[in-house]
Amino acid sequence: MPRTVAVVGGGISGLAACYHLARAPQPPKVVLLEAGGHLGGWLQSTRTEDGTVFDHGPRGVRPGGAAGAETLQM
């Protein structure tokens, strides 16, 4: 019986894990579990009316505490 692997989270790491599992010499059944409404986690892209795509990338600064607030002030 083939293995089943559950990947929790559809962020970039979860998507990469699914990709590499599916390309294995004897790939298991891969089940991706994502709670949100879209894949990619913190990575997001938007497309303007003229077709230009803006990649917003992951959020690099998570403003928590005094250090986060000071970083945002820079």
From TrEMBL:
Q: What is the lineage of its organism?
A: Eukaryota, Metazoa, Chordata, Craniata, Vertebrata
Provide a GO CC annotation, any one.
mitochondrial inner membrane
Q: Which SUPFAM superfamilies match?
A: FAD/NAD(P)-binding domain
State the species of origin: Phasianus colchicus (Common pheasant)
Gene Ontology terms, MF aspect: oxygen-dependent protoporphyrinogen oxidase activity
**Chain intervals for the UniProt region annotation (Disordered):** 50-74
GO terms of biological process kind: heme biosynthetic process
Q: Which Pfam families match?
A: NAD_binding_8
- Protein name from the UniProt record: Amine oxidase domain-containing protein
